[in-house]
Amino acid sequence: MTDAMTDPFMWLEDDGPESLAWQVAENERAGADLLAHPAYLAACAALKEAAVGFKAAPVHAGGLWFRLVIGPRGMAVATGHAPDDTGAILCEAANTSEGAVILQMLPSPQGRFVALVVAPKPSGATVLRIVDVARGSITNDRLALHAGPLGPSLIAWKADESGLYCIVGEDAGKRWGKRRLVCLDLGNPQAMEEPVVLEALDVEPQTSSDGKYTLVLTRTASGPYPLWIKNEASGRWRSFFRTFAGRCRGVFNGNHYIAVTTEGASRGRLVAIPLDGPEDREQWVELMPEGEHVMWSISRAGDQLLLSELGDACMNMRILGLDGREQTALPSPGPGAVGIIGPARVAGSDVAAFSADHVVFTHQTHVSSPALYSYDVKADILTQIEPPLAIENEFVTRRVFVTAADGTKIPIQITHRRDLETSVENPTILTAYGGLGIADLPMYMPNFIPFIKAGGVLAWATIRGGGELGEAWHRGGSGKNKTISYDDFCSAAQFLIQSKITTQDKLGIFGVSNGGLLVAAAAIRRPELFKAVVAHIPFSDLLHYGRDPISVRWLFGEWGDPCDSSMHDHLKATSPYYAIKSGTAYPALLTIAGSSDDMSPAWHARKLAARMKDAGGPAEVFFRVWEGFGHIEAAAAPPERAAEWMSFLTRKLGIDLSSDG
Question: Model pTM?
Answer without folding.
Answer: 0.94
